[in-house]
Automatic annotation (TrEMBL):
This is Lipoprotein YerB. The keyword Signal applies. The keyword ATP-binding does not apply. Residues 1-28 form the signal peptide. The lineage of its organism: Bacteria, Bacillati, Bacillota, Bacilli, Bacillales.
Length: 369
């Protein structure tokens, strides 16, 4: 289900910086029409972590607990996740539906721009998701690690090679799934492509994809548990490469979440005006390698590395880890998987070059707001 391990882990920080700077401001690469789609070989073992869902308490009668959020839900079962590639260019903001993703990733695409990947499972009635954008090999990997159907519009040549060869279960707007997307006349292309949960699930069913899947779950603690470790972190900023992609998170003690901002402004969901927020934010460092003059990247999301977990106004240093057929997890310094607080989790993947910590600035003591 995941991509093969990269043959080399170390890359030169100066080469990465130089090549990405030359690509900064460039538009995304042209995508090629989609052929067909499908499963990659499982990765080799990575640093260990305790796996499996472990809700803090049994849900009430008639409810089930999400293994991705740790929250109780009505119904007998959860549908297969949708892993949607979401445009994060300035012209694509604010996006629709991202406050209703169970897990939200942010990762570089090329030229210094970032892509969001929303993992949607708990909220089955999201009325509008997007703008939807193209896919990369490591984005296929992220979506499939949750057992999801990957949703995208176009992709890099390397991504299409994987989709074809492995016969992936994906939904591509410029391929055979085009009927399940629409263009919004209020925005200019390519920042105007959308779908919704109902259309995507209908399309997945028509394409013969399974409606349920085995989804790895996280460990969870009680929502009222007091953090036993970490340092005060009321606010932190993440800089990927470009100034137009500076992300901030500010802790709200009243909500028990970190409220996300972009370029100094609150990041809101266009669907409902709700803040984009997370009970858990993982910032992780990964090796990035520039592959061509367009700035396309190879990103190692298998071998593990430095990471910081932000919860309840505290920052805990540790490592990220990933086993074969599993999702990315945060492992504390004692080697045990950290328990998440019930709610949404955001995972931000930044380059290890020139240093992991150089992409992050943490400050302050939590205050009520």
């Amino acid at each position: 289900m995941t991509l093969s391990r990269y043959s080399s882990r170390l890359i030169s920080g100066c080469v990465l910086a130089a090549m990405l700077l030359t690509a900064c401001g460039a538009q995304e690469a042209e995508t090629v029409p989609a052929p067909t789609a499908a499963p990659v070989p499982a990765p080799l073992p990575s640093p260990s972590a305790t796996a499996g869902p472990s809700p803090a308490a049994e849900p009430a009668a008639g409810l089930i607990t999400s293994g991705l959020t740790g929250l109780p839900l009505e119904g007998g079962s959860l549908p297969r996740p949708l892993a949607v590639m979401i445009n994060n260019a300035p012209a694509a903001r604010p996006q629709s539906g991202i406050s209703e993703a169970d897990i939200l990733y942010e990762v570089l695409a090329e030229g210094g721009i970032t892509r969001l990947v929303g993992i949607f499972q708990s909220h089955t009635g999201v009325v509008k998701i997007g703008p939807i954008r193209s896919i990369r090999p490591y984005l296929i990997d992220i979506g499939e690690s949750y057992g999801g159907v990957t949703v995208h519009a176009g992709g890099s040549p390397a991504a299409y090679a994987i989709l074809q060869k492995e016969k992936k279960e994906d939904m591509d707007e410029i391929g055979r799934a085009g009927a399940y997307f629409w263009r919004d006349k209020e925005r200019k292309a390519p920042h105007n492509l959308y779908s919704n949960a109902a259309k995507l699930r209908e399309g997945a069913d028509k394409l013969g994809y399974a409606g349920t899947a085995e989804v790895p779950g996280y460990l969870f603690t009680d929502k009222d548990a007091v953090p036993a470790e970490g340092e005060p972190a009321a606010e932190f900023n993440i800089n990927f490469l470009l100034k137009s992609y500076t992300v901030s998170y500010k802790y709200s003690s009243e909500r028990g979440t970190y409220l996300r901002g972009v370029n100094g402004k609150p990041h809101l969901d266009l669907n409902n005006g709700n803040p984009v927020e997370a009970a858990n934010v993982i910032v992780m460092g990964a090796d990035h390698k520039v592959l061509d003059d367009v700035g396309r990247l190879q990103i190692d999301i298998e071998l593990g590395g430095e990471a910081v977990l932000f919860q309840r106004g505290q920052a805990v240093k540790g490592r990220w880890s990933r086993k074969p057929e599993d999702v990315i997890r945060f492992v504390k310094r004692d080697g045990k998987e950290a328990a998440m607080y019930p709610g949404v989790t955001h995972i931000l993947i930044v380059p290890n070059s020139p240093t992991f910590s150089g992409h992050m600035k943490v400050s302050g003591v939590p205050v009520s707001n």
